[in-house]
Amino acid sequence: xxxxxxxxxxxxxxxxxxxxxxxxxxxxxxxxxxxxxxxxxxxxxxxxxxxxxxxxxxxxxxxxxxxxxxxxxxxxxxxxxxxxxxxxxxxxxxxxxxxxxxxxxxxxxxxxxxxxxxxxxxxxxxxxxxxxxxxxxxxxxxxxxxxxxxxxxxxxxxxxxxxxxxxxxxxxxxxxxxxxxxxxxxxxxxxxxxxxxxxxxxxxxxxxxxxxxxxxxxxxxxxxxxxxxxxxxxxxxxxxxxxxxxxxxxxxxxxxxxxxx
Length: 261
Ligand SMILES: NC(=O)c1ccc[n+]([C@@H]2O[C@H](COP(=O)([O-])OP(=O)(O)OC[C@H]3O[C@@H](n4cnc5c(N)ncnc54)[C@H](O)[C@@H]3O)[C@@H](O)[C@H]2O)c1
Prior knowledge:
The chain is an alpha/beta fold and 261 residues long. The chain has a single domain, classed as Rossmann fold, CATH 3.40.50. It has helices spanning 17-28, 40-47, 64-78, 102-130, 152-172, 191-197, 216-229, 240-260; strands spanning 8-12, 32-37, 54-58, 83-86, 133-138, 177-183, 233-235. It has a 7-stranded parallel beta sheet, with helices on both faces. Bound molecules: nicotinamide-adenine-dinucleotide (NAD). The site of nicotinamide-adenine-dinucleotide has 32 residues, from helix 1, helix 4 and helix 6.
């Protein structure tokens, strides 16, 4: 979608980190932005930084009724949503599958997989009806390359977001609506702190923090370009394909085995 044709973007997890970086990048392009977040205190502060273009709305992405009211509230102010950024998420809990507490599992899947799905359920039909729009769903590098260890359940949720995005893209393309999936590497944000704030479990170990692989400004720019060019997948880090090949090798071997049988 050409950004010049877009007026209103709705961003979940917009009060911090990647969501806020995308919000600023879209505001720079002249769009009005609804920042939807569970953290009302953070929302208030952030909205004040661009009072003319930002509006805040309290949203827990796990709550479908809340999606309905947040959509109505935001569209009353800025008109129909042209761009939906389904970005809110929490951190991996740091435990292997076998050691995962069921409550922690439900929270992680609820926020990181069902949250973005609820956003699609709330907005996709309207965009199809209007014959325009773009949806960006935030997955992760581990939504393309499966990981276990302390990241297994997180990776499972993010794979779901990737699958939803690629399938939805097929459905929406004939109706003029674009869909992209954002797969960042490691970004310096408050993800772990905010996870604990909403009652999630986090494995944050300040001594074992991997170095960021991409900056917030770079992510903002990548998302703007992906919307303009209708890119299906946004990969933030270099050398991703080598990792994908490693993952695909057993699938390739299985296909070759079947073809030979
Ligand atoms: N930081 C990274 O290294 C990294 C890498 C890959 C993917 N991601 C993904 O990027 C997205 C944004 O994360 P971030 O790193 O900017 O973290 P962040 O904590 O800075 O931002 C996340 C925001 O989402 C909000 N939020 C959490 N649960 C919510 C809910 N149920 N409803 C509404 N809002 C909610 C938080 O309050 C916070 O403002 C997440 O989906 C995360 O999984 C992050």
